[in-house]
Amino acid sequence: MKPFAELSYSGQVKRLKRLAQSALLKYNLGESRLVCLSHGENTTFKVEKEPNLTNFCYVLRIYRPGKHDIAAIHSELLWLLLLENNTDLEVSKTVVASDGSHIVTAEAVGVPETRYCTLSHWLPGRSLKCGIECKSS
To answer: What does pTM read for this prediction?
Structure first.
């Protein structure tokens, strides 16, 4: 098997998609469609339970190993919670895994390290960067 670091962009995304599917098992969402939004500093996938319905769309973020430790990720999630509770900003809410955790770990064959992952509810709108939409119901 070719080393992960030697894969093309699409080859890395393909392996990380398997890791994403492994992470989603910890949320008991059942079958979902995954669409890669970005792969760089971190990798994010749009998770669709029912296409184009806000209540059934999520964002799965796979953190790059060695860049973010669990304390930094917790801090980011706490910051989002504080924004949600103390401002009028609409902030994506974190989805809690079946075991009650806000951060899960996942691995997949061909991806060298275990990765931290978080799942958040999708906010309706259009991304200015990639143009992907998820409309409200």
So the answer is: 0.87
* Three-state SS at 97: coil
Mean pLDDT calculated for residue range 106-131: 86
Tell me if 134 sits within 8 A of 46, measured CB to CB: yes
Instruction: Indicate the residue type of 125.
Output: G
Q: What residues does each domain of the chain span?
A: 4-124
CATH number (3.10.350.10, 3.30.1330.30, 3.30.450.70, 3.30.200.20) of 4-124 reads: 3.30.200.20
pLDDT tens per residue, range 93-110? 999 999 999 999 999 999
In the predicted structure, residue 74 carries a pLDDT above the cut 70: yes
Q: E-strand spans in 49-137?
A: 57-62, 104-106, 115-121, 125-126, 133-134
Instruction: Tell me the pairing of strands 43-48 and 57-62.
Output: antiparallel
